Amino acid sequence: MSVVTVIGGKASEDLAKRLARKLRAKFVSSELRVFPDGESKVTISAKPKGKIIVVNSTYPPVDTNLMQTLSLISKARQFSNQVICAIPYMGYARQDREFLLGEIVTLSVIAKLLSAAGASKVIVVDMHSILGLKHFTIPIRNVSAVPELANYLKKIKLKNPLVVSPDLGGKERAKEFARLYGTDYIALQKQRDRKTGKVQIMTGNLDGVKGRDLVLVDDMISTGGSIVKATQFLKKQKCGRIYVVCTHALLIDNAEKKIKKSGVSAIISANTIPGNTSIVDVSGVIAKAI
Ligand code: R5P
Fold this sequence. Notes:
This protein is an alpha/beta fold. The protein folds into 2 domains: 4-144 and 282-289, Rossmann fold; 146-271, Rossmann fold (3-Layer(aba) Sandwich). The chain contains 9 helices and 15 strands. It has helices spanning 13-23, 62-77, 106-117, 130-133, 146-153, 171-181, 225-236, 255-261, 283-289; strands spanning 4-8, 26-34, 40-44, 51-55, 83-87, 121-125, 140-143, 162-165, 184-187, 190-192, 199-201, 214-221, 242-249, 264-270, 278-280. The chain is globular and about 60 Å long. Ribose-5-phosphate (R5P) binds at residues 94, 166-167, 169-170, 199, 218-226.
């Protein structure tokens, strides 16, 4: 078997250790010092050998974590020309197109930076859109946490469950989740004001949710605005309990509190972003892609 080293960035240390165990790879940790002006000084703790996998998510502080990821890739490249970069949560993935005239498609800048730093391949988990993958000129593999999330949810007893996507963009994800979970699904129609970021649910009254426990499935929760609006709407339709399942729980500011207050029973997310709700491990899914 070829020699593999996993380098764990500070943003994904636990996930990187789990991945190293799954791959029976050497684990190299990184030390981090942040200078008073905000600059990051990253140091790796040992010499990596063989094929190298750098693991680091780019959740907030996004730019800082991105810079640390680029630094680790660049260092890894000194030891190997096979540097796989696993970015379980890819920040900037929502900036995949020019929504308003003059906007910069920042994801395409990230793609250039990752290859310039020395990555030979990128692995991401549930990238926000397929379009986003097209900005990369080096191979990129998008793996999904949906099967693991669906398996986890099977442990919770729900009454006549229905899977709901809070927007039409997430319809395929909800469909796949429902197939694996073994139930039906619907997708709401959500509208977001591109200037203010405010969301509204445009769907009219729904038959068929009354009394049913719902599983709201999304790729990510940021401010929680989408989930709160969807929950308020679904509660008006007299549904049963609502469980929220997502891959990436950013839960900015008091999003978790806001979501629970709106009537959600529990939030279940993957460990692409560490936190209170990050119950589902994706190291196995990433290992399979390597
Ligand atoms: C949007 O298309 C995404 O799939 C999420 O629904 C959205 O990014 C969540 O953001 P927030 O929690 O701020 O509403």
